[in-house]
Amino acid sequence: MRQTHIAGVDLNLLPALSALLEERQVSRAAARVGLSQPAMSRALQRLRRTFDDALLVPGRDGYTLTPRAERLRARMAGVMPELDALFGPEHFDPATATESYRLALSDYSVALFGADLARTIHQRSPGSSVVYQQLDDEAFAELNAGGIDLLVVGRPTPSQFARQELFTDHFVCAVAHDHPLADRGQLSINDYLAFPHIRIEIEQGTTHLIEDALPGPRRVAVSTPFYTFAVDMLAGTDLVVTFPARLVAKLANPSGVRILNAPRSFPQLPFYAVWHPRMDHDASHLWLRSTVLELTV
């Protein structure tokens, strides 16, 4: 783009120009923009050289505008508000926004707060849309490429991404109501390893949290990414499924299973909202993150 005129212009003179054209008097213009009268006089001299025009000339009732200055005044009335908007803080109004938010969530996150989040965004920003996709091995690559706006994950995240801790959960185990372990309030490691398991496979790097807490491998009979499906499978089996405790309140029929405390060596589960740092100060993204935090704390 050619910049044949603006390249040599000091844009710091624009507030002084606007004030002089409106006030038509040096002292009043100086007071308007917070300059001393000598500084405003110097600004006027520079503006005269820039436009090769006197701009303000003595008249019968003080100063009057030259024809060039009159034309500048008409244009400045539209230019200054645009410049204020351009360089001022970005304003985001969810009520009038038409954003499209894409989030990667696990089955656990969707069950825990997915419905509340989608409903809240729709109520507060009816012109915007929400897309949920399954959290998987490609989620961080998509986040990096801009295909995902935000993901929620229960494990440490790559250092190049920004994150905010939302809450901390802990593991519990579920078994059928007639399971041999059903009357144990607290499982030991030996209890845990004595029976086959349903393993929740969300993405690589997640399930190792459990494996790292075990002295040896557990026997996995079924693998699935779906927590609610896994719990529904327990009836009539000797299977054990391990999942975050907050999900218990979301189970369709919690009385049909027994909820047990996981072995004490199992780690806590901090959950994070994760995004690309390029979105740190984006007003729309800030609103999305604050909404997610509000609904998960």
UniProtKB/TrEMBL annotation:
Occurrences of domain HTH lysR-type (ranges): 9-66
PROSITE patterns associated with the record: HTH_LYSR
UniProt record similarity statement: Belongs to the LysR transcriptional regulatory family.
InterPro entries in the record: LysR-type_TF (IPR050389), LysR_HTH_N (IPR000847), LysR_subst-bd (IPR005119), WH-like_DNA-bd_sf (IPR036388), WH_DNA-bd_sf (IPR036390), YidZ_PBP2 (IPR037402)
A single MF term (Gene Ontology): DNA-binding transcription factor activity
Keyword Ligase belongs to the record: no
Keyword check for Transcription regulation: yes
PANTHER family: HTH-TYPE TRANSCRIPTIONAL REGULATOR LEUO-RELATED, TRANSCRIPTIONAL REGULATORY PROTEIN
Annotated Pfam families: HTH_1 (PF00126), LysR_substrate (PF03466)
Name of protein: LysR family transcriptional regulator
